[in-house]
Each structure stands twice: as structure tokens, then as C-alpha cells.
Amino acid sequence: MTIIEKIIASHSRYETVKPGDIADIEIDARVARDFGGPNVVKNLINNKLKVKDPEKTFFTFDTNPGGSDQKYAANQHFCRQYARENGIKVYDINTGIGTHQAIDKGLVRPGGTFISTDSHANIMGAVGAFGQGMGDQDIAAAWANGSIWFKVPESVRINLYGKRPGNVSAKDIALNLLNIFGANKLLGYSVELYGEEVEDLSLDERITISSMATEMGAIILLIPPTPKIMEELEQRSGKKSEAVFADEDAQYLEVFDVDLGKFRPMIARPGRPHDDVDLEKVKYTKIDSAFIGSCTNGRIEDLRITATILKDNKVAPGVVLKIVPTTDNIWKQALDEGLIRIFKEAGALVSNAGCAGCAAGQVGQNGPGEITISTGNRNFAGKQGKGEVYLASPATVAASAVAGYITGMDDIPAEPAVFERPETTGVAGPTEKRKAPAEKLTVAEGRAWLILQDDIDTDMIFHNRYLTITDIATMGQYTFDNLEGHTDFAKKVQPGDILITAKNFGAGSSRQQAVDCFKSLGISCILAESYGAIYERNAVNAAMPVLGYDPEALKEIDLKEGDKLRVDYRTGEITNLRNGMTSAIRGFSDVQYEIYKRGGLLF
Question: Across 414-472, where does the E strand assignment appear?
């Protein structure tokens, strides 16, 4: 078996598993954050469910660690009260990113299982553990049952050969991999990473690379731990564990041999983490701000390289540099090592530990027209604000902050460049509310909406500025208001309509609202070539019909925008009622049908 197959088997009732099997997996650590937590609690209360094994159940308040937004503060307090009543530990706003706490404190160890409302829970691949971001209903079910169903994914193996260039950071490795595989070539796979240079990666570097598996569309990117990594983990947590390794005869869907020696410092251009180019191609691009942090690049090694560049330098005039360590322990370590003083003397803003950047109202967001270079893992339109965001390594971000434009650490000018700031743009208002249809059917008829665009992410579907909304009835009006060309979708769509999109629909965040907004509008079903892994689970669990299709099926029925379409969820038969032509797509699986028939996972 592969690594993920061994982990799933060891946490299930099966001795062996293979790709396509569905198993209930015992979860070692079950986490809800401050934006998903209230919905998890509501699901439990509304369904009269109790928490099983509170000692394995946690809250982590890292999305809004300052509690600076009143709605977040209310949500956090609501979760604290529930935690007190049920004996659940809270890693509160003073501790930092939950996934990093899980690694450093040994909540999950090599070979273990971890789930969270964080779509980057697969960062656990850095220590050879299973981690998955899941939606509110999944987490609630796991809290109540101690386990959750999971479909065993296919595994692929990437062998990195050759010598790693000296100027290539762990973030550059991740961006180079994204450049090679894009956002969906590894979609739905468990990826194992091997190579001599891989074995030498530090824990911090492993975390950086594994944290961007989500952006590659992968279920997880697993890096087998070395004895040195195992020793470090034991020292951090005080807990022993045994690593899990793939068998020598493990079966992989594909094996890729990639020359690490050809990797180079890279930048992801605004809008897509996989739109990666050589740093030289965007060099001299003016910037207004820079951000160093996120679950990808806020570890102590990242802060040390940042301090090396900022020492005896100043942030360029007109540029704002924001630095956010991932955990409070790392913040204190940076203080003890004198790094915080270097940051402040250089003119940087240093915030308390947390996710930052990735959620509205947090340190790292930017405004309309603002150009930011960031160490984050995502730069979807609107994700880190209304401006444009380039992704890069901490060294590149720090060097650019000093220069005033994008540049590398070996080419910082003697005098920084000063640029005029771009003009700001207006903000669109909300759209009208819609009601979802009352009945559930196994056959749907409705107008076809063709939005045949790949990699529509959850920020395009339901932007993170609305994450505090928990009432489904009010969600529909915000659907697609961050998807260029379709911001008026919610005004035009009618109950019963059918959405047809392309590859990797729902990439990105684990937010349930990106599913529920379509239910709010009364969309009868969604057809896509493929889905983001978390998004598909959320839709299935919420009894929202999502089905897969091959492009030829649409051609066979000559489907056009606005045609009335009939879809049979069970058989997969689709009929264009304009011309009577029929074709076949992928209908419900047995599991999906059972959940749909019950009205949702928790019913």
C-alpha cells in the first residue's frame, strides 16, 4: 500500500484498502476554527448530537486572532461557551495557526489522522500524517461519531532528482511544482514526494511545500519523515510515534521524475497560484505592500531569512511590510533572537500570530488597486483583498519591500524606488435574495447556465468577506459576485436552473457557504467536469446534487446557453428538451444517493 492507504487502513476496520474504497476513518484530532466553528456547533445542537472523545476535539481561533470584527468576536465567544460546557480545549486567539499547533504540540503525529474546517489541513503531509480540510457537516459528524467516511484516493509519486540550486527556497519548490502540474493535473490524488534533496528538507520547509497541495488540487502532499524529523517532532511535543512508509511494491497511478536542478526562484502572478513565471519576468513591478506570513511561510526559518535581508535596511517609502508569525511560540522565539527588533527598525508592522491575509479584516489584506507581494498560498481575485497579489518566497518578498518593486535578494538597489499609488475602484453592492425550492427530486428540469471556466474557486463563488453569514436564506444574493463577467448571476438566475461549469469547480477554501449559496438561489443541480475535493464533499453532504460529465456529452445534445435541460440524478441521463437529444453523464454514487435521500449527512 501507499502511505495514505496504510494510514486509512490503520484507522479503519479494514486491513487493506485500495483506491476507490470508501471507509469510515477514526480521526485522531478533530478541529473547528473560528469561522467554521459556529456552524459546527449549530449542526450538533440542532441535531441533538453529543461530542465523542472531547480530548480529541479542539477549537483553533486563527482566522481572526484579534477578534477585531464584531461578528467574529461573537462567533468566538459562542464557541468558547460551547467548549466550556463540553470540556473541549480551545487554542485561542493568542496561540496562532491551528494546523501548526497540531504539528508542534503533537495533536497529530506521523501516521495519524487530522481534520479541520481549514482547507490547508493537508499540511499534515509535512510530517507524514493524513490531514483534510472539511466542511461544517463533516466536522460535526466527526465530533459526534469520532470518525468520518472517506474515499481512498489514487496515489502518485513525484521523484525530485538533481541538486537543488542555492537560491531556490522551499516556496520556490512549491511554485515550480505548481508551474509543472497546474491546479488540476494532480486533482484528487494523494502525492508522495521523494528524492535525496527532499530528505534534507527541514520541518519548516516541508510545511511550506505540503501547505500548497491544496493549490495543486491534490488531496495531500506527503513527505516521508526522516529520523531527524521524527526526533525534532518528539522534542517539540514530548510524544513518541512511528512513521508510516509506502511498501516497496506500492501501486501508483503515475510516477513523475522531475529535475530539481532546473528549478528557479518563481513568482505567481495575480489571480492564480499556478500562473508561475521566472522572477525576472516580473522584476521591477511596483508594489504598494508586502506580506510575510500565512500557514505557508511564517515559521522561524522564514523569519530568520527575512531578518537577514532587513537588517541595516529600511522598507521603501510608500511600501507597507506586514509580518505575521504562524504561532505565538515562534513569535516569542523571534523576539528572543532579536528578529522582532530588526523588523521594527526596518519599518515593518509585526502582528500577533495567526493566519492573517486570508480572511477579510485581517493583517495582510489589501485595497482596490493595491499591488502586494505575499508569501501566502493563494492569490485568487479578492482572496487577500481587492488589489493584486503576487506570491513569492520570504526572501523575495523582503527584498522587494526594501527595493519598492519586485526583485530578488541578490539584486536590492542602493536607493529604493518610489512609485505613485494606483487609483482605487468602487465596490459593488449586494444583489437581491432568492428562495430555494421546497421539493427534492431525482429528476431536474431547468434552464442551462453555461459558465465553462476552469478552476472557479470558492472566493469567486462566495467571497470570504461574507464568511460570517450562517443563514442560508441570505446567502444566495452574494453568489458569484466575485466572478468576473458573472457578478449579476444572482439577479438573473431562477429557481430550478442548472449550472454547468468546467474543471476543478470549487477549488480553494472549505467554506460550506460556497455550496449553500446555490441552494439559497434554488439551483437544482450543478454539472462540472471535476470538482475541488472539499467542495464535492460539502455538496454531497448538504444534499446538493453535483454530477460529473465529459465534454462530449454536451456536444452530443448540442447544448446551448438557456436551453431547457432534464437531468436524471440516478441514471445520469441528460436530455436537451429543445431538440430531444440525450446523452449520459456520471450519476449519483450509492453513497451520494443515500445522503441525498436523507436530506443531508446529519439527517
Answer: 443-451
The number of C-alpha atoms within 13 Å of 467 and in the hemisphere containing its C-beta is 30
Strand ranges in 153-263 using DSSP code E only, listed in sequence order? 155-161, 190-194, 220-222, 254-259
Q: Report domain 443-598's class.
A: alpha beta
46 Cβ contact partners less than 8 Å away, ≥ 6 residues apart: none
**Cβ atoms of residues 560 and 546 within 8 Å:** no
Q: Tell me: the pLDDT tens digits for 310-328?
A: 999 999 999 999 999 999 9
Q: In 3D, which of 451, 447, 440, 445 has the Cα closest to residue 573?
A: 445
Given a cut of 50, whether residue 433 has pLDDT beyond it is no
pLDDT in tens, 65-84: 765 677 888 889 999 999 99
User: Grid coordinates in use for 340?
Assistant: 522582532
3-state SS record for 368-399: CCCEEEECCCCCCCCCCECCEEEECCHHHHHH
CB of 575 closer than 8 Å to CB of 557: yes
| Superfamily of domain 3-262 in the CATH hierarchy | Aconitase, domain 3 (3.30.499.10)
Instruction: Say what the pLDDT of residue 418 is.
Output: 78
Give the largest CA-CA distance in the chain: 73
Buried b (16+ CB within 10 A) or exposed e, 318-340: bbbbbbbbbbbbbbebbeeeebb
Residue pLDDT, tens place only, 153-187: 999 999 999 999 999 999 999 999 999 999 999 99
Asked if 380 and 506 count as a contact pair (C-beta separation under 8 A), the reply is no
**Calpha distance 424→445 (Å, rounded):** 43
Inter-residue contact 65 to 148 (CB < 8 Å): no
CA distance 72 to 60: 13
d(CA 205, CA 203): 5
We find that the CATH architecture of domain 267-403 is 2-Layer Sandwich (3.30)
The neighbour count for residue 451, using CB atoms within 10 Å, is 17
Is the model more confident about 117 or about 381?
117
Residue linked to cell 444572482:
490
Distance CA 483, CA 490 (A): 11
What is residue 70's predicted lDDT score, i.e. its pLDDT?
Answer: 76
Q: What is the pLDDT of residues 41-69, one digit of tens each?
A: 999 999 999 999 999 999 999 888 765 67
What's the CA gap between 507 and 133, in Å, rounded?
Answer: 12
